[in-house]
Amino acid sequence: MKIIILGANQVGTTLAETLANEANDITVVDNDSERLRELKDRIDIGTIPGKASHPDVLTRAGGEDADMIIAVTESDELNMVACRVAYSLFQTPKKICRLRSSAYLVSDKLFGKHGIAVDVVISPELIVSSYIARLIDLPGTLQVLDFADGRVQLVAVKAFYGGPLVGQEIRLLRQHMPNVDTRVAAIFRKDRPIIPEGSTVIEADDEVFFVAAQGNIRACMGELRRLDKPYKRIIIAGGGNIGMRLAETIEDRYQVKIIEHNPERCAYLSEQLNKAIVLNGEASHQELLIDENIEDTDVFLALTNDDEANIMSSLLAKRLGAKKVMAIINNPAYVDLVQGGEIDIAISPQQATIGSLLTHVRRGDVVNVHSLRRGAAEAMEAIAHGDKASSKVVGKAIKDIDLPEGTTIGAIVRNNEVLIAHDDTVVESDDHVILFLVDRKTIPEVERLFQVGFSFF
What we know:
By secondary structure, this protein is α/β, with parallel strands linked by helices.
């Protein structure tokens, strides 16, 4: 697939690296020639310096025969104009636009062929705030991913000493919970993946990914660790787009305070929010945190645009008694350094956003993609089509499907019914199949499994 990426920022760079590794023809456009040169030195892609919305720049990038344009520059207006230009000049089949301002997301009438000519709108702030809200709603999780409109969830937790299933074989899970069906999709032990089998023993400190119907998630978590009490008190450091969206989402269910240093922004937040308390100050000031009873806070969230500020305020909050600390970290090199120590969860906006972008790039009928383990692994929801003659999966039991090594089918959603995958489960046409891939290099093989042969047509 020939893809033009507009913007060599963190999102654009991560996306280029991901897609180039999957044998796509990638060209990246950016005003910063030095940034493009550094990117080209790392990966085998084309680069074009220039303004992303200019017709001559898009022409030099290969716009005439591009299959897709993904506009992820820091400017919403630039992204929208570039998509409109690509459609007007080249009738580019698919145009994906990153928009940060919520003002553009109010009406669908802005988009489509007769509007700005954007096929897919991606809002990183909305994606990240929803991602954080799920972590708050399920205390003790490292990652919570929704599939099939939330009917199925894939959850990552760290196994603790004392969990009923820790130190025992996975096959005993059904004995522990005879009325709950679940499947362990993968285990990461000291950062190395283990493909789970019935005889696999779960050890303390394992990072365990399991899949279950949404209503059964907490019961499954209880087998691996002591369940954390539901959160009540939340402090958000940073009243930007993500902080405000998160507060809007959770203020009816939790006691929320936002710390924001800009007085004008504080006034705006006070007008937009109904129940959250807005505080003007610096989240890294010890006196302010103590005055706001940080020792009674269940979750402290550092959500500013400054990695160093997020790290320092999180470390301070944890030292002063915050029970759980999460921080947005934009620099990928920092994520592994800080997570799991004083900072409980490091959130990478790029990785959260990449999954939504990849959903629209995958071949076959793929409706959901989530990037896991900082991009090393992936979870995917694909729809099976065809029949026994035209499909490599339809009509087959899971044990008979030629899955690539390191790939497991976790669950199937059929007519709104959640079926946890077992060896004898047979895939039917129109099933939503949830897969876990510990090695992203196998993605093309998985895509081919869900592509329908010519006999189907």
